[in-house]
Design goal:
With 166 residues, this protein is of the alpha/beta class. It has helices at residues 3-12, 16-24, 36-40, 49-62, 83-92, 110-115, 131-140, 152-161; strands spanning 69-71, 74-76, 99-104, 123-128, 146-149.
């Protein structure tokens, strides 16, 4: 939600943003945590079957549409094209060799899927997210260019086995 809009809504309707967040099971957190598991204990509902079902249904509805796009369990009608970030990624990945982007919290590879026509062809996208989201991603989106993980241990092993430079 746009920060300014959120601020105005909070000003006129105290508590409504929390209610919307609770109703749609979107949670965020900030603070100092020793592990990712410690932080995610605060947001169990975000990893629920209900939100997983919603993410999958929205993805299935939008995957063949030219006018609707899925983003984190919601349908949007505007592509999220960030040309500054795309240009930066393209500059970092100029090479004939395969390059890898690790996208923490990358959901169903939304950024890559939306912007792949603007990105260098030598990029593979590695996504790290919640297990429920990664299970959906592996069901519909797994490919040589899109690799999904929900475990830091598995991600680290993949990086080591493939001798990727971070």
């Amino acid at each position: 939600m746009n920060y300014e809009i959120k601020r105005i809504i909070k000003l006129f309707f105290p508590g409504i943003v929390k209610k919307i967040s609770d109703d749609f099971h979107y949670n965020s957190f900030k603070g100092k945590f020793r592990t990712f598991d410690e932080a995610t204990r605060l947001t169990k509902s975000y990893n629920s079957k209900k939100i997983g079902y919603k993410i999958e249904q929205i993805y299935k509805k939008s995957r063949y549409s030219v006018n609707e796009f899925d983003r984190d369990g919601q349908i949007v009608i505007k592509k999220n094209i960030n040309f500054r970030l795309i240009n930066y990624i393209n500059k970092l990945t100029l090479s004939k060799n395969e390059k890898y982007i690790i996208d923490f919290g990358g959901s169903l590879c939304n950024f890559y899927r939306t912007n792949k026509n603007h990105l260098n062809n030598n990029i593979s996208w590695i996504i790290f997210d919640k297990k429920i989201t990664i299970d959906i991603a592996n069901k519909y989106l797994k490919s040589k260019k899109r690799i999904f993980f929900h475990s830091i241990k598995s991600l680290k092993e993949y990086i080591e086995v493939n001798n990727l430079k971070i």
